[in-house]
Structure formats: C-alpha cells, structure tokens
Amino acid sequence: MAGFAESIRNIWSVQELRERILYTLGILLIYRLGTHVTLPGVDAAALAQVRAQEGGGGLFGFLDMFVGGAFKQAGIFALGIMPYITASIIIQLMGAVVPYFQKLQREGEEGRRRITQLTRYGTIGITALQSIGYSINLLAGATGRAVVINSTLFTITTVVVLTSGTAFVMWLGERISEDGIGNGISLIITIGIIAFLPQALYNEIGLIGDNFFILLVEIGVWVLVAGAVVLVSQGMRRIPVQYAKRVVGKKVQGGTTQYLPLRVNAAGVMPIIFAQSIMFIPSTIASFFPNNATMQRVGGWFSDISSMSYSAVFFVVVVFFTYFYTAITVNPQEMADTMKRQGGFIPGIRPGKQTSEFIDTVLTRITLPGSIFLGLVAIFPAFAMQAGVSQGFAMFYGGTSLLILVQVTLDTLQQIESHLLMRHYDGFMKSGKMRSPRQGGGL
Fold first, then answer.
1. Is residue 413 within 8 Å of residue 434, measured between CB atoms?
2. What does the UniProt entry say about where the protein is found (predicted)?
C-alpha cells in the first residue's frame, strides 16, 4: 500500500503528467454534464415517470449503459460515441476488401489522416440515420406523451441535435487522445459504463436484502471473472526468432535471440463489439416499424439478451468474428517477410513460406481458446441474470462492458507507467510491470 501511495505522489509530482490527467478529468466531466441535458421538445419529468414504469431491462437498458444514461433520459448525447465505433468498424472492414482503403493504409501518416476524415464523415451519416430511428421510437408508445412539440419538428430537431452531440463527443475524445492521457474514445465509453456501477450495486443490494453472503459471493465471482479477463488479455505465445550475425563496418550486429509475441486474444474487445453491432441490427430495424407485429416479434427476440437462444447465437457470432478480426489484423506473410529482410529466422523453420505457415498455424491454435473465452465472457451476463442477478449488475460480469473496463484500464496504466519510467520514477506496478505487446511472458 505504501508503494501505491508513493506511485500516486510520483504521478502528481510530474507536471506534464498531472496536467494531462487533470485535462482528461475535465473533458470527462463536460461529457458527463452533457448526458443530463434533455433534447429540445421533451418534458424531462414526464419522460422520467414513463421510464420508471417501463423498468430498465432489455436491449435499450443495455445500450443506455454505454452512453452513461443519456439514452433513456433523451439527452443530447443519447447516441454517444457508438456511431463513431460503428463507422470505424466499417472502415476497418473495407480496408480488408476494398483496394482504395488498402492503399490508404499503406500511405503512412497521410493515409491515416484521410481514413480519420472518412470515419468522421461516416459517423455523421450513421448518426443521422440512427437519430431518425431514435425519434420514431421516442414518439411511439407511452414515451410519446413526453414530447411536447409537433412530431415533425421534433424529428428534425432531434436529428440535428443528436448528430451535433455525437460530433461534439467525438471531438472531446480526440482532445483527450492528443492532450490528455489514454485513448479518448475508449475513456468516454468507460466513464459511461462506470457511471452505472454505483446504481447497479445499490439496486443489487436492495434486491438481496440482508443476505450479505450472497452479495459477497457475487462480488467474488465478479473479481474472478475480471482476473481471468486480465490474464487472457495479457497472455501471449512467444516464438523465438534468431538473428544472424552481420558485419557492418567494424561492428558486428545481430547474433541475438528475440521473441515474436502472438497474443491469445489478438483481437481484443473488437469481436464482441462487431457481434453486438450485428445483433443490434434487427432491433434497430424493428424500431422503424412500431406498428408491424412481425417486426416487433423479431426485434423482441433480439432484445431479450438474457435468453439462452440469444446467448447461443451471440456466442457463435463472437467466435466467428474473433477469427475474422484476427485474420484481417494479423498478417503472418508480412511478419515472415519482415523477419526475412532483417535477417531473422525461427529455429528449425525455413524463412519465407514455411515461416508464414508456421506463424499462421500457431496463431490459429492459440486463437481457438481465445475465441471460446471471448464467447463465454460475452454470454456470461445472461447466466448471471438466470442465476438471479439483476440485469444492471449482471452487465458487469462480462460482455463488452467488462472487457472495455479491463482493456481501457490496462492501456491507461501502461501510458502512465511510460511517463513515470521516462522520468526515472518507479513504475505504477512495481511488483509486476504492465506488459506491452513487445514484451515477453504469457502463455
């Protein structure tokens, strides 16, 4: 504990790091304040009364977690940063199949700048479409009583305000990434998830009553699942790479053994986000047809995230996208070519095609347990709900929320660790430093 307190003092003593952290906290505070600003034309008190009668379950309750409560409050940040995530996914997928985007990916900084610009344009388009669906859904049913202006005018203003709100949130995230600490987009999602934890824990305590043993068991299981996620996120298979000796002038270079790290979970949280986006599509389409019974039945099935049938489909989709995303982000052939150009080789494996095939085989084998683990984590909240845990608290047992919390926390700690080590301070985690993808260890 004394070492942790010393690390906190070290963080505060570094002016640049302190300013970055305070700047990040200030931006996140602005975002949290914006989630409580209601859309024009909505009676906030009437909407809160309707929402209280509806309860907080279902798909919309799940979506609400990622925007810090703004979705059900009809806030100006109701769509949050999720349209940006969707646009990023689409651009990334197009980079694997469309030659134009493949060319941009190879053009270095200029190409990345162009991809970022296209992602922003895509975000605006996706937000505008989702805003229409959101306004239609809000006007339908009991929530329509909370809208106090003409429906056409409300739809137009909602599209404008929600699109502007998402653009502003996207700008806040970019400011954090450039001038703050951590990845801004990820931190904005994380702060929305964390905002739900106190209320979810309070509701769970109220549901359990005086039986604190059950609460301790639930918290213990949550800690074990979080620990397993950390373990798999940091786990990797290290392939030894031998570099031949070369004489450059009067110096001898090479002759050393390094390691090629292949992560067990090379895809990170993206497969679950991909899968979740696919599972959201039927419900989103159904929201455009509130009076169509067939569409509502389909949307209702895809909204029941606690059902075992939904979980089975979700598990299969997560496993598929884990392999898919790993295949488009990790290129064994490129690794083998780079290794060959640098005079490196894997002992017992010929450079070139055999090296590529060997890396591909190892990657396929370690991706299997990683994909199964991701699938189990994705559907674990459904098992928790079946066991009697409230939906709000069950969401923290796995799925996208837990993976994002763990991944963003690890990434942010790594950045803080780097700032401290550059200034000759002890790292944030003295007993076991955070592993970067270039470091060894793991499975």
1. yes
2. Cell membrane; Membrane
The answer on 115 and 220 residing in a single domain is no
Q: pLDDT digits over 60-117, tens only?
A: 666 677 777 777 888 898 888 888 888 888 887 787 778 888 888 777 778 888 888 9
The three-state secondary structure class of 278 is helix
Total structural domains within the chain: 2
Length of the chain: 443
**Is the separation of the CB atoms in 75 and 35 below 8 Å?**
yes
Element at 56 (helix H, strand E): none
The secondary structure element, H or E, covering residue 421 is helix 399-422
Cα–Cα–Cα angle for 310, 313, 314, rounded to 5 degrees:
80
Q: Are residues 110 and 43 in the same domain?
A: yes
**Nearest one of 423, 426, 427, 424 to 414, comparing CA atoms:** 427
For residue 246, give the 3-state DSSP assignment.
strand
Determine contact, residues 378/396, Cβ cutoff 8 Å. no
Residue 403 is assigned to a structural domain of this protein: yes
CB 149 within 8 A of CB 41: yes
pTM: 0.76
Domain of residue 265 covers 203-443
Other beta carbons within 10 Å of 361: 11
Q: What single letter denotes the amino acid at residue 351?
A: P
Residue type, 434: M
Q: Looking up tokens 């305000």, which residue turns up?
A: 161
